[in-house]
């Protein structure tokens, strides 16, 4: 098991991001879904928890078969997907990722949001605080993202919001920005396979880091699209996009509706986690470092596993990206 805490600041308030998060995850998932690959929304319903109160539960299937290496596709089911379950009690959320074909693999994310610049070292409960973990600050403006996902319009060093007049984000912006909020994410990755555990868990965290960075960048880059929305309007947008996304990847279930009757039997088991985060299905690749603005270095972008001597599940490499859609919404 490998535990890390990520802290991602944004030039928004926690209340504003409640809308922005739902909008970003829906739009991002739709953009990254195509030709049978992507995110299928299975369920999106209100949920009542005895401890956390009213929330939203979502279940999604993230189809990744074509992203597996050829030798792995020969031994896994033709339709291969990761299951994402999320419970959103904003500003506290839980997300869990599992794969029936890899029972020893799981990701749990617990997320909390506060209006500060990532200065709360005691935001998680006592049990979590006692666990050894690395704290990683992610800079949405100056940290690298996979090259194929780079868009000039989403480069926050040069983006300025017309409706909020926030941006462009200069170096050191977290010390001067007002308003500012922080997304605190406690991420637990498990891959309990001897000989592969350490490398796979480190690689998955690298993928998680890239997905979180991209999703939070887009949430602010798209701020002018969602800042005037009400909760009812963003839920309607979410419903429409989810149905379109399901059809885009070739899934045609009954129309998705956000139910009015809270669910009562879907409480999460095990470690808590965060709302589903955005989907990125391609292998991490990074922008070349500009000469005038050096970027921070990130972890190695690839993971090399030993070639299998037989078609055994233990030697299968993990898919490049879980959907993890700030991400990822998982009912956010």
Automatic annotation (TrEMBL):
Catalytically driven reaction(s): a 1,2-diacyl-sn-glycero-3-phosphate(in) = a 1,2-diacyl-sn-glycero-3-phosphate(out); a 1,2-diacyl-sn-glycero-3-phospho-(1D-myo-inositol)(in) = a 1,2-diacyl-sn-glycero-3-phospho-(1D-myo-inositol)(out)
Entries under Pfam families matching the protein: IP_trans
Keyword annotations of the record: Lipid transport, Lipid-binding, Transport
GO cellular component assignments: cytoplasm; nucleus
Domain spans labelled Phosphatidylinositol transfer protein N-terminal: 1-243
CDD domains per record: SRPBCC_PITPNC1_like
Stretches that traverse the bilayer: none
Alphabetized InterPro entries for the sequence: PI_transfer, PI_transfer_N, START-like_dom_sf
Segments of skewed composition (Polar residues): 317-332
Molecular function as annotated in GO: phosphatidylinositol binding; phosphatidylinositol transfer activity
UniProt KW Lipoprotein keyword: no
The keyword Transport appears for this protein: yes
Region (Disordered) location: 260-332
Function noted in UniProt: Catalyzes the transfer of phosphatidylinositol (PI) and phosphatidic acid (PA) between membranes. Binds PA derived from the phospholipase D signaling pathway and among the cellular PA species, preferably binds to the C16:0/16:1 and C16:1/18:1 PA species.
Protein family per UniProt: Belongs to the PtdIns transfer protein family. PI transfer class IIB subfamily.
PANTHER family assigned: CYTOPLASMIC PHOSPHATIDYLINOSITOL TRANSFER PROTEIN 1 (PTHR10658:SF55), PHOSPHATIDYLINOSITOL TRANSFER PROTEIN (PTHR10658)
Protein name: Cytoplasmic phosphatidylinositol transfer protein 1
Gene of this entry: LOC115817847
């Amino acid at each position: 098991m490998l535990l890390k805490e990520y802290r991602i600041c944004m030039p928004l308030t926690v209340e504003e991001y409640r809308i922005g998060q739902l909008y970003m995850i829906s739009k991002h998932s739709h953009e990254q879904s195509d030709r049978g690959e992507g995110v299928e929304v299975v369920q999106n319903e209100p949920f009542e928890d005895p401890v956390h109160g009213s929330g939203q539960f979502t279940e999604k299937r993230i189809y990744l078969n074509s992203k597996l290496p050829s030798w792995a596709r020969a031994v896994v089911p033709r339709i291969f997907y990761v299951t994402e379950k999320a419970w959103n009690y904003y500003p506290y959320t839980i997300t869990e990722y599992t794969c029936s074909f890899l029972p020893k693999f799981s990701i749990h994310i617990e997320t909390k949001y506060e209006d500060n610049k990532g200065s709360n070292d005691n935001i998680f409960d006592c049990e979590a605080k006692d666990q050894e973990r690395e704290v990683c600050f992610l800079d949405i403006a100056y940290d690298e993202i996979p090259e194929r996902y780079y868009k000039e319009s989403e480069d926050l060093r040069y983006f300025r919001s017309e409706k909020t007049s926030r941006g462009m984000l200069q170096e050191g912006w977290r010390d001067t920005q007002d308003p500012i909020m922080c997304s605190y994410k406690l991420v637990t990755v498990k891959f309990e396979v001897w000989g592969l555990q350490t490398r796979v868990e480190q690689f998955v965290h690298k993928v998680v880091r890239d997905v979180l960075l991209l999703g939070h960048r887009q949430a602010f880059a798209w701020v002018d699209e969602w800042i005037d929305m009400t909760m009812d309007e963003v839920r309607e947008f979410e419903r429409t996009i989810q149905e379109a996304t399901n059809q885009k990847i070739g899934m045609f279930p009954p129309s998705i509706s956000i139910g009015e009757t809270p669910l009562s039997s879907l409480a999460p088991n095990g470690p808590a986690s965060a709302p589903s985060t955005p989907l990125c299905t391609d292998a991490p690749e990074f922008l070349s470092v500009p000469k005038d603005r050096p970027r921070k270095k990130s972890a190695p972008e690839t993971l090399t596993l030993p070639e299998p001597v037989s078609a055994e599940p233990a030697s299968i490499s993990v898919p490049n990206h879980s959907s993890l859609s700030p991400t990822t919404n998982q009912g956010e």
